[in-house]
Design goal:
Elements (H helix, E strand, L loop, with lengths): L2 H10 L3 E4 L3 E6 L2 H9 L8 E7 L3 E5 L4 E10 L5 E8 L14 E4 L2 E4 L3 E10 L7 E12 L11 E12 L9 E10 L5 E9 L6 E10 L4 E6 L11 E5 L11 E12 L2 E13 L5 E10 L2 E9 L5 E11 L5 E5 L5 E3 L3 E9 L6 E11 L3 E11 L13 E2 L15 H8 L5 E4 L14 E3 L4
Parallel strand pairs: 4-11, 11-28, 12-21
Antiparallel strand pairs: 1-4, 2-3, 3-5, 5-9, 6-8, 6-10, 7-9, 10-11, 12-13, 13-16, 14-15, 14-17, 17-18, 19-20, 20-24, 21-22, 21-23, 21-25, 22-27, 24-29, 25-26
Length: about 450
């Protein structure tokens, strides 16, 4: 019993914590829309929830058989009392030997936070004996349960996470190594062009990436210089994308050169710099390699394969419709969130759709929109042998429209409202951990394909 404090004190000396700034979660509780759906009555007032934590990120250097503590303060700057539940969860996909979930304990794990007040929880970190060198990761999650609309049984909640990034100096070396998969011009949904770099962490500790990209035209004249936005930690064995925070209005059909400089750094290791180059022509293109409409468990399943044959990464939005034999649109989806398709890769995905369509022959219509007004379309015939019944598990809600199969730009209006009503019972707003700056949109699952 007498030796324990000495062991703890000695172990704590091997913990060095670097903490991030305060992180804020601000969102509207969606009681207004839900009340319309449940009551069919007047739009109710939407309450403001304003929650933040400090620090927003904790980096720790540790040894085996150590113990340390870290306080996290939670602030309620909103107008309503909040019930806060605190737990420790997996950070990103760090499982197995890279998980530190079992090392962290939080006290208290549940409390009420009144308006304009704050409260502090203590996170205790205990490392076991005989650890190998490398990174271990976990996240402390604060779940804020907001007030419920009068007359509605639907509750709304938000989550805010604080990552704990632990670098263990144990048996074996600490390895800092990133393999860059290239740099690409990036066409955003407005038609302007930035850049994205792809990197894989081959080491055993996490890294942060930063840098900038110079853009020159075919004559060597500088067109602009773009900074990469600060990103979340790139964990061992994982691949991530680094996006520029700005973009340029480059000329269609013209040639350009990207020269990027990417820095990989960790609080425990020195930074390393890498140069990346890519030449390209501003000639974006997408094509449909596959579109299938099939009936699975009384639901319409849309299976797609959209290929990017250009040398530019492209943000695209997909939407779908069904037309009858006369060309009338019977049902139309809202537009999907923008999805990144890298050069020479395909977007292979399946979407269940909540449409009730009677028996008969139909035409499925799909559009991939990109680049501020560009789009590529595909159609496919299919048959319905029995009426389909929408289920709560279907991917999108829709509203019936009566238009011709040309699908004008406004054909998906109202789909978002219907989708929100369907998803109301499980409405949750997720705010995952960030390293100062925002987290870029995650790319969809993609498979390599031959470049044309």
């Amino acid at each position: 019993m007498i030796l324990l404090p000495k062991v703890v004190t000695r172990a704590r000396a091997f913990f060095r914590a670097a903490v991030g700034p305060r992180k804020r979660l601000s969102f509207l509780l969606a009681v207004a829309l839900l009340s319309v759906a449940v009551q069919g009555g007047t739009l109710l007032h939407a309450n403001q929830v304003d929650l933040s934590v400090s620090p927003s990120l904790v980096e720790v250097s540790a040894t085996s058989n150590g113990e340390a503590t870290q306080d996290i303060t939670v602030y309620n700057d909103g107008s309503d009392a909040l019930g806060i539940e605190v737990s420790v969860t997996q950070y990103k996909r760090a499982s197995g030997d890279y998980s530190a979930v079992e090392w962290l304990a939080v006290e208290p794990s549940r409390f009420e936070l009144l308006p304009s007040t704050n409260s502090t929880v203590t996170v205790t970190i205990k490392t076991p004996v005989g650890l190998k060198s490398g990174g271990r990761y976990a996240m402390v999650v604060f779940r804020a349960a907001g007030p419920t609309a009068a007359g509605s049984a639907v509750g709304v909640a938000g989550e805010l996470g604080v990552p704990f990034l632990i670098t263990v100096d144990g048996e074996g070396p600490l390895v800092s190594q990133v393999k860059m998969g290239g740099i690409f011009p990036l066409l955003d949904t407005s038609g302007r062009i930035g850049a994205v770099a792809v990197g894989t962490n081959l080491g055993n500790i996490h890294l942060f990436c930063s840098g900038h990209v110079g853009v020159t035209d075919s004559s060597g004249t500088a067109v602009g210089d773009l900074e990469f936005t600060e990103n979340t930690a790139l964990l061992p064995g994982m691949t991530s994308m680094l996006f520029t925070g700005e973009d340029l209005p480059l000329t269609e059909g013209s040639s350009y050169l990207l020269k990027g400089f990417v820095d990989h750094h960790n609080t425990s290791h020195n930074a390393s710099m890498e140069e990346l180059n890519a030449s390209f022509v501003v000639k974006p293109a997408l094509r449909w390699d596959k579109l299938e409409m099939s009936i699975v468990s009384n639901r319409l399943l849309v299976t797609t394969d959209v290929f990017n044959p250009s040398d530019m990464a492209i943000f695209a939005q997909l939407r779908f419709a069904v037309a009858d034999a006369d060309g009338n649109i019977l049902a139309a989806s809202e537009a999907m969130p923008q999805t990144l398709i890298l050069p020479g890769t395909s977007l292979n995905t399946s979407y269940p759709v909540a449409w009730q369509i009677p028996r008969g022959s139909y035409t499925g219509i799909a559009i991939a929109a990109y680049g501020g007004g560009l789009e590529v379309r595909q159609t496919v015939p299919f048959d319905v042998k029995a009426g389909m019944i929408p289920t709560v598990n279907a991917g999108w809600g829709t509203v019936p429209v009566r238009e011709k199969a040309g699908i004008p730009a406004g054909w998906w209006i109202g789909g978002g409202i219907a989708a929100a009503v369907i998803a109301a019972g499980g409405l949750t707003i997720w705010f995952m951990s960030r390293h100062k700056g925002g987290t870029p949109p995650a790319p969809a699952s993609q498979t390599p394909a031959a470049q044309e």
